[in-house]
Amino acid sequence: MGQVVMYSSVSVDGFIADENDEPGPLFDWLTSGDVPLDDSGFLKVSQASHDYIRPYWDEIGVTIAGRHVFDLTDGWEGTPPSGIEHVVVVTHRPPPEGWDSSAPFHFVDGVEAAVAKAQELAGDRWVEVASGDVGGQVLAAGLVDEVRMDVVPVVLGSGKRYFGSVDAQHLLEDPDAVIQGDRVLHLRYRVRR
């Protein structure tokens, strides 16, 4: 089974979006370089960011996201983002009315069920958990192997927290990757068991 990785871009003060769910400058680093990150031609990063992010993206088989993110993105119009094969949506509600049931999206109730379904779908590939409330719940349940953060030099002051509403201490190992890109610092931590 592949690793379970919690991941997102985050402000220096720990937010993944402002109070209105707007990321502000958190993703600017994804379009400020000269090295293409994918085939779209839109995402261009520094060479250091490319060399760190591209191999990680190539390992991801499934992304877990909450219903809030699914709704904000309009379900990515039925196509998982960044070439990912499947998205598992944690929700207590059914898929939206008129949703194409053949789209590679799986709606499950609870984070434990989401991780189990994602690992089944991913096989040996990795499961990426979007940070925020769902990511914090997966971490609190002891199901995250690794935390990755793209720390952007901005202070948002308030908003949606990277770890959601985690209310207990969780120890991480020392970072095993600290990569400086342009306008971003990539960090990777193993979760201490």
From TrEMBL:
Gene Ontology biological process terms from the UniProt entry: riboflavin biosynthetic process
Annotated Bacterial bifunctional deaminase-reductase C-terminal domain residues: 113-170
Pfam families per UniProt: RibD_C
SUPFAM superfamilies named in the record: Dihydrofolate reductase-like (SSF53597)
GO MF terms, alphabetically ordered: 5-amino-6-(5-phosphoribosylamino)uracil reductase activity
Organism superkingdom: Bacteria
InterPro entries per the UniProt record, alphabetical: DHFR-like_dom_sf, RibDG_C
Protein name: Dihydrofolate reductase
Native source species: Aeromicrobium choanae
